[in-house]
Write the structure tokens for this entry.
Amino acid sequence: MKRGPHYKLVLLCCILGIVVSAELLHIHVKINNGLQHGASFCTFHVFDCDQVARSSYAKFLKIPVASYALWCYLILLSFALYFRKPETEALFFGVLFAGSALALLPAIYLFLISIFVIGAPCLLCIVLDLVNIALLLVSWRYIRAHGGVRTFFHETFRRRTPPLQLINRRSTLLIASLLVCGWMITLVPDFLFRVVYSDQGGTSSLFAEEIFDEWRAAPKVTFASESAGDSTLLPGHGPLDAPIQVVEFSDFECPHCKRAAATFREILSEYSESVHLVFRNYPLDAGCNRLVATPFHHYACKAAYLTVCALERGGVDLFWRTHDELFALERLNDQMLREVATRVDIAPEEFERCMEAEDIHAKVRRDLEQGYRLRLDGTPSIFINNKRIRMADPAALKKVFAYILGGGK
């Protein structure tokens, strides 16, 4: 392929696409595994990459959309480098035009979703959209310079060397390698969390020391109008006078809240006499949280109302039973909430009353107001002895607990 302006622009767009999609994948993994501390760099003003990454639209077939983008740009760069000879130049730009035109459809769909459903456009996603538009325009200009669409595709696919004849041993190996590369990219998010970020097989988390140091240096906060261990106001687990006081703000539709709940269940069995855990509802949905502009976790508010109802009806034990039932579900909807209520012996009419009762709503708002005052930026938000810890990492939690039990403050 002649290394003219069209070719150079394609290479530049490919490299930019790879860098941006890789960063989007990095943000997605951190956000959805509780590794993000504070807002990411592309969350400012009207843009919110973090909220988009948390949404269900950030995945397709359980794989991050950013993984697909990274794979596509790697394939495109490889093809641009491989099919650069004069006899394959037209074929490459024809495929590029068709591919970038096809990619516009999901790009437009996801952009509209971010604006009208999530209510927060993603800056890096918009950059990828612009890269795709640039590739479309570059390929379109090349096609126009070679006689227009009809003439170009007729010349390319009928009169010139048929595309199948261009596939030799080397190109077959390239395509096979790219398919394997794509499969590996789909495994990157799980690999990053399970192998790089997470505690596996008893091996200490690579970030445990960093998380511990952040917790030690964190300023102490105060909780309005009640102490962290006042079970008359909040559902608690463990001795009230325990040396380790944990307050957790959580959302029943939050995937890393679910993991945090499992972690605390395991930790509390080991430190049952040393830890008092207090749970606070912080649903991330516009139905009850005034800081969430649009519907997000659609049933999180109702789940919170159900736990308060359980606390009022059966005390702390029924609260934790309801808590565990909710986090055991793969997803939430109205029918599942009713089924949980039935399993914890809350009658259908009582369930309906709890969903509408002002006194129930007021108690959820109390937790939300506390979260507003603390400027929470997501869930789970966890405080140990009034200091915030970045995430419920088992190795980091044990390190903090050992420090406190050893006399540290």
User: Anything to note?
Assistant: The radius of gyration is 26 Å. The chain has a mean pLDDT of 82.
